[in-house]
Amino acid sequence: MSGPLEIHIARPDDATFIGRIYDEGIADGNATFATGPHPGEERERWLAARPANAPVFCAHRAGTPMGWSALAPFSHRPWYAGVAEYTVYVAREARGAGVGGQLLAHLLAAAPGYGYWKLVGLILAENEPGLRLAHAHGFRTVGTHLAHGTLGGHWRDVTLVERHLAMPDDAGSIEELRAPR
Ligand SMILES: CC(C)(COP(=O)(O)OP(=O)(O)OC[C@H]1O[C@@H](n2cnc3c(N)ncnc32)[C@H](O)[C@@H]1OP(=O)(O)O)[C@@H](O)C(=O)NCCC(=O)NCCS
C-alpha cells in the first residue's frame, strides 16, 4: 500500500481498530502484560477517560489503519510530571515497513507540547523489534528489571529505555545531567 502515513489524534471511531491492533500485540506475547480482548466499546471508554496529557494517535495510509501510539504520565508524583511512558502498536501486516518508526518520531516531536521532557519505554526484554525501534530513535537502555511480572504463568524481564526531549529552563542542560556523577 502506498501513500503518506497520516497521523491524527484518536477519535471515538478509531476505537475498534485500536483494540484490534492492541489484541494482535497481546496475542504475539512479547508486547505487554495486558490481556485482551479489547472490543471497540471498551477502547472507546478508555479513550474518553484519558487526561489531556495522555494523548492517543492513530496512523492511516490511504484510509487503512496501520497503527497507533500513546503517551501516558509515568507517575502520579508531581516531580515526575515531565516524564511520559510511550506506547507504539503497529498492525501485524504493516510491521517492518517503518510505520512504528514514524509513530515514535511523531511522539517525540509532540511530547514537549504536552509538557514532557523525557520519554521512557518499558519493553519486554525479548521484544527485539520494540528494543530496536527505541534504539533507532535515540533511546538508551537504562537497565533490565528481572522477573518484573508474569505473563501466561511465566516470569518476564522488562527493559527500561529513556530519551530526554528538552529540559525545563531552570533545570540545567541535559548534557550536565548526563555527565557521570
Ligand atoms: C515494535 C513495533 C511497534 C515496531 O513497529 P514496526 O513498524 O515494525 O517498526 P519499523 O518498521 O519502524 O522498524 C523499527 C526497528 O525495528 C526493527 N524491526 C522491525 N521488525 C523487526 C523484527 N521482526 N525483528 C527484529 N527487528 C525488527 C527494524 O529493523 C527497525 O530497526 P532499525 O532501524 O535498527 O533497522 C511492532 O513490531 C509492534 O507493533 N509490535 C507489537 C507491539 C509492541 O511490541 N510495541 C512495543 C512496545 S511499546
Characteristics of this structure?
181 residues; alpha+beta; Aminopeptidase; seven-stranded mixed sheet; 7 strands; binds coenzyme A
Commentary on this structure:
The protein is of the alpha+beta class. Helix content is about 25%, strand content about 35%. It is built from five helices and seven strands. It is globular, with a radius of gyration of 16 Å. The termini are far apart. Bound molecules: coenzyme A (COA).
In short, what is this structure?
The chain has 181 residues and is an alpha+beta fold.
**Rg on CA atoms, Å:** 16 Å
**Integer average pLDDT:** 94
From the 3D coordinates, which CATH architecture would you assign?
A: 3-Layer(aba) Sandwich
Q: Which outline best applies?
A: globular
Which ranges are low-confidence, i.e. pLDDT below 50, for 5 or more consecutive residues? none
Order of helices and strands: EHHEEEHEHEEH
End-to-end C-alpha gap = 49 Å
Q: Which ligands occur here? A: coenzyme A
Sequence-ordered SSE layout with sheet pairings:
Layout (H helix, E strand, L loop, with lengths): L4 E5 L5 H14 L11 H9 L7 E6 L2 E10 L9 E8 L8 H12 L7 E7 L3 H9 L3 E12 L2 E11 L9 H5 L3
Parallel strand pairs: 4-5
Antiparallel strand pairs: 1-2, 2-3, 3-4, 5-7, 6-7
Helix pairs in contact: 1-2
